[in-house]
Amino acid sequence: MNPTELHERAEQERRRQRNLRLRLFLCYSTPCLSAGADRVKAVLDEEIAACNTDAQIDLEVVETGCMGLCSRGPLLRIVQADGSEKIFENVTPESAPSILDACLSNTEPTKVAQLSPDLAFFTQQTRIALENNGWIDPEKIEHSLARGAYGALAQALHDMTPEEVCNEITRSGLRGRGGGGYPTGVKWELVRKAPGERKFVVANGDEGDPGAYMDRSLMESDPHRVLEGMAIAGYAVGAEQGYIYVRGEYPLVAARLAKAIKAAEKSGLLGSRVLDSGFNFRIDLRVGGGAFVCGEETALMTSIMGRRGQPVPRPPYPAQSGLWGCPTLINNVETFANIAPIVKNGAAWYAGFGTEKSKGTKVFALCGEVVNSGLIEVEMGISLRRIVFDIGGGLPDGGRFKAAQTGGPSGGCIPAEHLDTPVDYESLKDLGSMMGSGGLIVMNETSCMPDVAKFFMEFCMDESCGKCVPCRAGTVEMHRLLTRITDGSAVPEDLQTLEELCRLVQETSLCGLGMTAPNPVLNTLLYFRNEYLAHVDERNCPAGNCTLDRIPLYKLPEHVDRLAILKERS
Ligand SMILES: Cc1cc2nc3c(=O)[nH]c(=O)nc-3n(C[C@H](O)[C@H](O)[C@H](O)COP(=O)(O)O)c2cc1C
Ligand code: SF4
Ligand code: FES
């Protein structure tokens, strides 16, 4: 297929869609599927089959990716030929026929909850990476083409040199969305300039943070967007082979990506002589075993090469020596999802979003104690308050905001006094947290901060690969101390030991997992030290979460050194 044919095929699909009287977009992504979207679809199919033939050819049901408001799923968006739309929430097999009937007869369905398209959840987002989510069937390449997929690749291949593509990405200010925030264009340029006959492009879709599902949703809902970003990267850095690495717990992602790769190859959008150019680019899928550490770039690459996924020291960095010793570009899937819009609309357009140092938008999985939990994409620099109270709709049941956890096991909890902080890389870091890959958990007064720190430490302890001692033994010891704090058996000196251990593990671990595992502890000690002290000194959990009197504490006479006794015992 050449660029003209690509354009014609897209236009043909757009024409087909414009001629439909009714389009029913049913969310068919994991959360809505687990809430029964497949049963709703079966009922809609039956109802449509019972309609007369004219009606049948006039409407279609589109099984889409995530629309965002996952907590209210299954969601069904109905769009009329004039563009007017209605969104129904919590759709069931029982309510689906009445919704369809009402839309066919242009009346309002009764007893079915509707979401207003004017809801702040929708209107206060800025969608770039997620712009097609909920509007296309990810398993139908024509749907993606109609929304402009592979147009930016055609533009890069036919109108730009690899150097120009790298420059455009640099000028856009895009930074890696995998957590570290490294400037993407700088990384691309390093790989482009690295000497070597063979180079590789890798998309990191491992996504192991607890509560995070941004990358899963992106890949499930718009796989061609990620593939197109990878292909543009391949052209820019001089690679002919790409790998997309997905964790084993994401079977739907793997199935949709495999289908998308096949469809793109069949259309000449991947493979040999892409879009009638001299550029060849293949993408292969690699499914990991689900270890969190395999998201770390060096571990991920050893896993792709068929070895045990364990980190190795850097330097050399992947850009110099990655897969099979060749220069390798590794980026997060959300980073790749931003590439096509930047090439299409220009670096200046993208740099117009966000703050001075954090450009563009960021996708977050907003969850926890918040009315509207789901997947959101917001402009960098938006305040946490707007995310939680406008987009998220505040806390349910009149709950009081206590903290928002960002950055997963490498991040921290941001307290209420910092609700107006702009959400960008630097501001979150200054608060002792981090942007991370995009998990955002809202907590109310019943969340106990030492217990939250213990939860993340337990995660790191379980996920530590065991290669280096500070992380392997340090996470176990930090977890033991946090357990003592939350079960009431800690002594005041435990806090000091905990802090010392945090610094030691931070400074001496081999990879990011160990280096950042102490962050949730240090950060909660910074903002919620009183809670730790209440546990240790008063055996009291202010949040009412911990049971502190399971281990009896005997009142000792004044002259007895309780600490010495405990130390001796242990
Ligand atoms: C323990 C650990 C887990 C990680 N998991 C992921 C992950 O799931 N996805 C991801 O993109 N990056 C992850 N990273 C960061 C990667 O090592 C790497 O920096 C990133 O993929 C680079 O892409 P970017 O520049 O687009 O952010 C992880 C890092 C560490 C230390
Ligand atoms: S820091 Fe932890 S996860 Fe990383 S290499 Fe050492 S033991 Fe493995
Ligand atoms: S999965 Fe349906 S709205 Fe997110």
TrEMBL record:
This is NAD(P)H-dependent oxidoreductase subunit E. Belongs to the complex I 51 kDa subunit family. Coiled coil: none annotated. Keywords: 4Fe-4S, Iron, Iron-sulfur, Metal-binding. Pfam families: 2Fe-2S_thioredx, Complex1_51K, NADH_4Fe-4S. InterPro entries: NADH-UbQ_OxRdtase_51kDa_CS, Nuo51_FMN-bd, Nuo51_FMN-bd_sf, Nuop51_4Fe4S-bd, Nuop51_4Fe4S-bd_sf, Thioredoxin-like_sf. The keyword Repeat does not apply. SUPFAM superfamilies: Nqo1 FMN-binding domain-like, Nqo1 middle domain-like, Nqo1C-terminal domain-like, Thioredoxin-like. Residues 450-495 form the NADH-ubiquinone oxidoreductase 51kDa subunit iron-sulphur binding domain.
